[in-house]
Amino acid sequence: MRTRLIILFSVLVLLCSCGEYNKLLKSSDYELKKTKTKEYFEAGKYVKATELLAQIIPRFRATEDAEDLNWMNAQAFYGMKDYMSAGAYFKSYADQYGYGKYIEEAHFLSAMCDYQMSPRAELDQEYTRTAIEGFNFYLTRYPSSPRADECRALIKELREKLVEKSYLSARLYHDMTEYKSAIVALTNSLKEYSDSKYREEMMYLKLNSLFLYAENSLANKQTERYQAALDDYYSFAEEFPKSRYTRDVRRIYLATARALKLEPQKSVADTETTEANNKK
Questions:
Q1: Per-residue model confidence (pLDDT) at position 19
Q2: What single string gives the DSSP state of each residue in 81-124?
Q3: Above 60 in pLDDT, residue 52?
Q4: CA–CA separation, 114 vs 134, rounded Å?
Q5: Which of 77, 139, 164, 251 sits a CA distance of 20 to 30 A from 154?
Q6: With bands split at pLDDT 50, 70 and 90, how would you rate the model's confidence at 264?
Q7: Cα–Cα distance between 134 and 87 in angstroms, integer?
Q8: What is the structure's pLDDT at 64?
Q9: End-to-end CA distance of the chain
Q10: Under a CB-based contact definition with an 8 Å cutoff, are residues 230 and 186 in contact?
Q11: What is the arithmetic mean of pLDDT over 19-24?
């Protein structure tokens, strides 16, 4: 019985609260609305705060309260994790109040909204790039900010996502046997992200794509394309002399040398074996 009374009392309180809020929405007392908006915002009731702010911001547009109300609105949407709306409002605040009291934080949180919307590496990375631009802008404008190290760490994290996206896209062409497209994509990725943690694998995939592209070409195109594969082999072997792909790379080299009617050079392993046999 006591539990039922508590539930009934809670429902009545909720209904009264909703009734008061609905009356407030319909009220023409904008000073009261402004006061209640701050109360809702500070209590974390962001939905109610933004509904009231939508009514009162136009009313206080040319007053000294306008900046605080616009800032509160942006923060409320951020608090609701509606990062698309929050980002738009932070940018709007920065445009309106270029020297406002919250301008530094507005630039940071605007970039943070894009960061929060940055998807996993397989998807489109527009928000990732925009976030990087935003954090770089913040660092340029506020180089001594206490948030500077955080911005650099976030930029590094986002950049790694772009590297992974580039790698996955290039590898997909290879896996789909679209070797010409794979060669272009891998070349561009290696050029743009020369220090990528996927560099060894991408260089191997590029070499393999060049070889398979040549192998599947018309006879009058093969010599030129095998030569390109051979040149890439030397680049790979020089950079990664002890690669985990050494066996496959050696196989590609031998097949390429046969196709070009060249005398294959001995590998390091072959040389070491020969020297060992001579010593015996």
A1: 76
A2: T-HHHHHHHHHHHHHH-TT-TTHHHHHHHHHHHHHHH---TTS-
A3: yes
A4: 8
A5: 77
A6: confident
A7: 11
A8: 94
A9: 98
A10: no
A11: 88
Q: 276 pLDDT exceeds 70?
A: no
* Residues recorded for the chain: 280
In order, the DSSP letters of 185-211 are HHHHHHHHTTT-TTHHHHHHHHHHHHH
Rounded-to-integer distance, Cα 166 and Cα 162, Å: 6
* Chain segment 123-160, per-residue pLDDT in tens: 999 999 999 999 999 999 999 999 999 999 999 999 99
Q: For the beta carbon of residue 242, count every other beta carbon within 10 angstroms.
A: 6
For residue 251, give the 3-state DSSP assignment: helix
CB of 32 closer than 8 Å to CB of 24: yes
Q: How far apart are CA 82 and CA 84, in angstroms?
A: 6
Q: How far apart are CA 6 and CA 212, in angstroms?
A: 75
**Structural contact between residues 72 and 99, judged by C-beta atoms closer than 8 angstroms:** no
How many other β-carbons are positioned within 10 Å of the β-carbon of residue 42? 10
Round to whole Å and give the CA distance between 81 and 190. Answer: 36
Calpha distance 263→260 (Å, rounded): 9
